Task: inverse folding
């Protein structure tokens, strides 16, 4: 136990906490937001999953360990898509767990419209939305 006097928080409680801070989106809502240019889809799945299952056309692929550096609009390593703190980002992992923690991290960087996809890539695929083989 650390000297802060706080009790450890389990991952389920942590997920509940961070998800309470924003509204998550379902697959069809994410698809429409990306299609209309209202949101940037960001796929944080690791390469083996993208190779196995394919990718979402138009999604920015950013490995989870690079996410904050690539999306911080003030960062020296930002992606061209990281245009500002008002950017609506929908983070996508495989099943919708890691993406919640990633979205919370983006909130800490000031990306107040960051959210994640409920059910992740698997929900996108199950909804019959576009998927292409990984390059």
Result:
């Amino acid at each position: 136990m650390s000297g802060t006097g706080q009790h450890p928080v389990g991952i389920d409680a942590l997920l509940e906490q961070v998800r309470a801070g924003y509204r998550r989106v379902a697959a069809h809502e994410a698809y429409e937001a990306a299609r209309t240019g209202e949101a940037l889809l960001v796929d944080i799945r690791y390469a083996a999953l993208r190779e196995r299952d394919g990718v979402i056309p138009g999604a920015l692929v950013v490995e989870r360990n690079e996410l904050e550096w690539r999306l911080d609009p003030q960062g020296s390593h930002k992606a061209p898509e990281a245009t500002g703190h008002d950017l609506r980002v929908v983070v996508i992992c495989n099943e919708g767990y890691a993406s919640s923690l990633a979205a919370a991290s983006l909130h800490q960087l000031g990306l107040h419209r960051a959210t994640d996809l409920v059910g992740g890539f698997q929900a996108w695929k199950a909804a019959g939305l576009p998927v292409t083989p990984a390059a």
